[in-house]
Design goal:
alpha+beta, TATA-Binding Protein, Endonuclease Iii, domain 2, five-stranded antiparallel beta sheet, two-stranded antiparallel ribbon, 16 helices, DNA-binding
DNA sequence: CTCCAGGTGCCGA
DNA sequence: TCGGCACATGGA
């Protein structure tokens, strides 16, 4: 392991369990095992404000975990109205929650498999796919599986994917893998696009709509203004911002409100609210 | 058994 | 543009 380095305003456990990523495993010694940039990595938070990683993976871990994000600046950008009391509660509930910088393919693929699924089951599917089709890595005698490359998912075929518990999502995952494996789309090239064009490109994948596109641009493309509206967030917004949104406003209107209201770092606001709503049922 | 899950695609009005 | 409905699967 590396020497512990500074990681202020950061909670490893909360971040890895926040529904952004689904494969990190507690190792029983206070650490987490997972795959990062094609290698097995262990992460551990020896005490508040510090983080240690497998030697040589410190920089990759720092980037992946969003430790570069300027939290105080992000918090200052949030709206401070009377109706935003819910946001302040949510912020206090999960200090140290970070938005991850995930590999784009892994993020896109995982969220294609997430539609209408509970977090626990998304995790189950992720592990199944990794173990069946991903590269086997090893750390401290533990097997860790990297997320399968597009070619591996493409070669597996839709039926084999379905057998991993994917249900109707198998088609979307397989089609996305085919497009990437054939070079029809280059996710790295999408990084250069402005937000609205990136969103449009992501929605071009079968099985990717507004919500998943927002998750992928937030967790996989570093677009921190992206504000995914899922069932939890929609309920919360209608309850606490109903006056501004309007009683019978359709979902697209709720999205527009949230995007405009929470601003430049809306993704962080969304993540605090999501975490709070999901764990506390607000 | 029934209900719901970090939704999307497709249909008809 | 919108409202409704089917879609696979598994946990509560």
């Amino acid at each position: 392991m590396s020497a512990p380095f500074a990681a202020g305003d950061f909670d490893l456990k909360a971040t890895l369990h926040s529904g952004q990523v689904f494969h990190w495993r507690a190792d029983g010694a206070g650490g987490y095992l997972g795959a990062l940039g094609g290698r097995a990595v262990r992460l551990v938070q020896p005490e508040s404000g510090l983080l240690a990683a497998t030697a040589g993976a410190e920089e990759a871990a720092r980037v992946y975990l969003g430790l570069d994000h300027e939290i105080s600046k992000i918090h200052e950008s949030f709206p401070r109205g009377r109706e935003d009391a819910i946001l302040r509660e949510a912020m206090a509930y999960c200090p140290g929650l970070r938005i991850l910088n995930q590999p784009s393919w892994e993020c896109l693929a995982t969220f294609i498999t997430s539609s209408l699924k509970q977090v626990a089951h998304i995790s189950q599917i992720s592990h199944e796919l990794r173990q069946r089709f991903g590269e086997r890595l090893e750390i401290d005698g533990n097997a860790i599986y990297a997320y399968p490359l597009p070619q591996a998912i493409a070669d597996a075929g839709e039926d084999a994917l379905r057998a991993c518990g994917l249900g109707y999502r198998a088609r979307g995952l397989h089609r996305a893998a085919l497009r990437l494996a054939r070079g029809e789309v280059d996710l790295d090239a999408l990084r250069e696009l402005p937000d609205d064009e990136l969103r449009e490109a992501l929605c071009g994948f079968y099985g990717v709509g507004e919500k998943i596109a927002d998750c992928v641009s937030l967790f996989g493309f570093g677009r921190l203004q992206s504000f995914p509206v899922d069932v939890w967030i929609e309920r919360l917004l209608r309850k606490h911002y109903g006056g501004q949104i309007g009683e019978k406003a359709p979902l697209p209107r709720v999205r527009e409100f949230a995007q405009a209201h929470f601003g430049r770092y809306g993704g962080y606001a969304q993540q605090y609210l999501f975490h709070y709503a999901r764990l506390e049922g607000v």
